[in-house]
Amino acid sequence: MVRRRPLLLGSLTAAACGGADPRGTRSGGEGANAGQAPAGRPERRFRFASLAGPVVTHENYRGRMTVILLAATYDAGSQVQARFVESVVRRHTPRINALMVVLEPPQNAPLVEAFAASLALSYDVAFADAATIAGEGPFPGLHHVPSLLLLDRDGREVWRRLGLVERGPLSDTIRAYQ
Questions:
Q1: pLDDT per position as a tens digit, 17-36
Q2: What are phi and psi of 125, to 5 degrees?
Q3: How much is the pTM?
């Protein structure tokens, strides 16, 4: 049974990644929302309190593609996804930005700081506002962890995915949209 778990996780991850198409053009049910940017490639405007102190906004990330990870300190999948994003950021620097938006209130700052420090993240970490935590706000429909969004150079959402996305498929997706 222990040997089957990695295979099951790999199968679930492959299904969550949308198979071979890095643009995630599958359709139907919740997968349509998870695999495609909403119609019209909306610009995602946001303003969040940063763990480092200053506020981060959509303007901070203009000019480069941006990976946004929605995560939580209590979720093991968020930890794994944060590591995958770190690996991809290092591979694609300086062509991309990354931001982890923690779906927890700022009162959890000590937990978030320990979480980010334990992972040695090189990218920004910010706190979601109440609307974002509820699945509203700048990323409508996303309040599950981990979740990923990819914004183009103009801040328009081009791709989103609920659940864990491995390094390879994430890197392929970034290349497909560059």
A1: 333 333 333 322 333 344 44
A2: -125, 130
A3: 0.79
